From TrEMBL, chains A, B:
Coiled coil residues, start to end: none
Domain of life: Bacteria
Ranges that cross the membrane: none
Biological source species: Niastella vici
InterPro entries xref list: HTH_HxlR, WH-like_DNA-bd_sf, WH_DNA-bd_sf
Alphabetized UniProt keyword annotations: DNA-binding, Transcription, Transcription regulation
Every HTH hxlR-type domain range: 12-110
GO terms for MF: DNA binding
Gene3D superfamilies to which the protein is assigned, alphabetical: Winged helix-like DNA-binding domain superfamily/Winged helix DNA-binding domain
A Pfam match: HxlR
Protein name (Swiss-Prot/TrEMBL): Transcriptional regulator
Length: 121, 121
DNA sequence: TAGCCTACATACCATTAGTATACTATTGTT
DNA sequence: AACAATAGTATACTAATGGTATGTAGGCTA
């Protein structure tokens, strides 16, 4: 349930890729993780508008697709860290390019770009 | 109706971009158009499994977002040609990289990649 | 000890994306 | 007259995606 595009396994590389990084939040999450190891709460604060349920769901899908790893520290309060796998990291240059494109388009339309949020801690 | 992601206008470039090129078919269609001017039927034959309704819908969305242009020739039988705009063409290198990534992953998993179809004419 | 925090899980519901199938218009060909 | 070709429309439907609300565990804080 909740899997973006799980239908017929892709034979086209573009299709294959978009089945994994399409969806409303995946690009932004991967992009944010490109910055380094992040905790659940950090991601949630950086991805404006995402609900905890969606975040959990999306993170699990990315984990299932081996784009990120999830490390649980059994402390109290619990701590869960997410980081890109090699495969996931290999996507960052592509997302970088897409971001650059997006930035240019936004400028073109007079929209002010705000890459990612989150107040320091 | 049918607009993929029309919710709050993106402030993040990555979000902005994925709102335009996300969805099941957009990446593949743009990629195919990267090859040059294409007719409706050519696109339909190249994107396996797409229904005419979806294709029309997606093409209209790409047109609205100024990623492609649509040229109608009032002949019989009708002829409609689609081509990338400058903005759309600027996306091709990113899709190229994503495709390369996808290809590598597919190889890694023993899947045979089949970039795009369509028999010559 | 009553709530608060983190990091979720679960149930339920609404919206949106996508599918299936059939149909249209126009003109030339058989 | 029936059929082919192209580029779609129309209608009805299912599946995927996303959202709200609430629950849970264990320690921490007031």
């Amino acid at each position: 349930m909740g899997k973006i595009n799980q239908a017929p396994p892709a034979t086209c590389p573009v299709d294959y890729a978009f089945q994994r990084i399409g969806g409303k939040y995946k690009g932004r999450i991967l992009w944010f993780l490109g910055d380094g190891v992040k905790r659940y709460g950090q991601i949630r604060r950086s991805i404006s508008g995402i609900t905890p349920k969606m975040l959990t769901q999306v993170l699990r899908e990315l984990e299932d697709d081996r784009l990120i790893t999830r490390t649980v520290y059994y402390e109290v309060p619990p701590r869960v860290e997410y980081t890109l796998t090699e495969t996931g990291r290999a996507l960052i240059p592509s997302i970088q390019m897409i971001s650059t494109w997006g930035q240019a388009q936004m400028q073109h339309q007079g929209i002010t770009a705000m890459p990612l949020e989150e107040g320091e801690e």
